[in-house]
């Protein structure tokens, strides 16, 4: 079976909301703030370099898993 890349995307408004609503785990660490995340460099994947790639929107995770699973299972490899 070939290596398949699944890229997940989340629009900024929902991403920011999720960061703001994080709750402390057993370690007490909340992760980076929204402002800190904005400082992280982002290089989009170059599709021409990835033969087997699907991009899914994770705004509603339940809606994202099924299409990705179907795509991977249907891939002729």
TrEMBL record:
Superkingdom, taxonomy of origin: Bacteria
Name of the protein: Uridine kinase
